[in-house]
Q: What sequence folds into this?
């Protein structure tokens, strides 16, 4: 197994364990957040965003290179209308299933077999998007 | 992936992208580590107000991360529950691809690098989630 793949596996395990232990994969916790009845999810975001910003600051300051030895370049996101339509659709799915894409895998790993249905549906959604992409407004 | 149809968006060198699969495998293992190996003795309590709101909708907090009243093989086969699980799952996949990112990609990575398109996306999917959880979900669970 390539070094890169082992690293991604380890980062996945770390991220998955964190999502699980912080309850960020819990449907109940998501309902709590969407009803503004608890602080937990907001606390997670308010910790994660500055931590990510600090990590990127350190990566840049120390001029850390990628695995291939190239300078790290974070692509600027180019706005298109897909951001609007896609986000609204994703929000509906998020409110119903309580899951974003990553947490679906974590839910399955934690032993909830029914989340496989969520995963297959999400994969179908990805496929249909790819199929319709040339005809959708962006 | 060996999927039918000639779709340009899905034509990429998947060997170069295979790290994605390792990351997904890591997430699966992470769920096992966090949910099974490090299973909490005392789960973090949910807000009483949320328990109350969900109770009204016929959902009781069981141990675990998903309500068995909706997310279980026995209870899946009603049209309302299929809309929630299959329809919701479909929109998660479709929407995040369309929007070019999700809670991690836009919410954490995008916001932490101060990209305004990500802020637009975050505001919209959060607003859409709020409306769905408060107004659409209760209609489906009635």
A:
């Amino acid at each position: 197994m390539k070094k890169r793949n082992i690293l991604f596996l380890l980062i996945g395990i770390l991220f998955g364990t964190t999502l699980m232990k912080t309850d960020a994969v819990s449907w109940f916790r998501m309902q709590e957040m969407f009803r503004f009845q608890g602080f937990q999810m907001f606390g997670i975001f308010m910790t994660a965003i500055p931590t990510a910003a600090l990590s990127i600051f350190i990566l840049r300051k120390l001029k850390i290179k990628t695995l291939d030895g190239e300078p790290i370049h974070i692509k600027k996101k180019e706005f298109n209308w897909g951001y609007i339509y896609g986000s609204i659709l994703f929000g509906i799915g998020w409110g119903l299933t309580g899951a974003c894409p990553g947490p679906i895998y974590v839910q399955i790993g934690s032993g909830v077999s029914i989340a496989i249905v969520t995963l297959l549906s999400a994969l179908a959604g990805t496929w249909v998007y790819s199929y319709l992409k040339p005809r959708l407004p962006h | 992936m060996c999927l039918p149809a000639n779709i340009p968006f899905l034509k990429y060198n998947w060997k170069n992208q295979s790290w994605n699969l390792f990351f997904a495998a890591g997430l699966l293992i992470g769920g096992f580590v966090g949910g099974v190996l490090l299973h909490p003795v005392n789960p973090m309590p949910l807000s009483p107000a949320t328990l109350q709101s969900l109770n009204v909708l016929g959902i009781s907090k069981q141990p675990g991360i998903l309500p068995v009243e909706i997310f279980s093989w026995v209870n899946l086969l009603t049209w309302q529950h299929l809309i929630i699980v299959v329809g919701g799952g479909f929109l998660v996949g479709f929407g995040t691809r369309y929007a070019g990112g999700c809670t991690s990609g836009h919410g954490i990575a995008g916001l932490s690098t101060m990209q305004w398109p990500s802020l637009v996306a975050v505001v919209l999917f959060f607003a859409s989630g709020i409306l769905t959880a408060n107004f659409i979900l209760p209609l489906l669970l009635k």
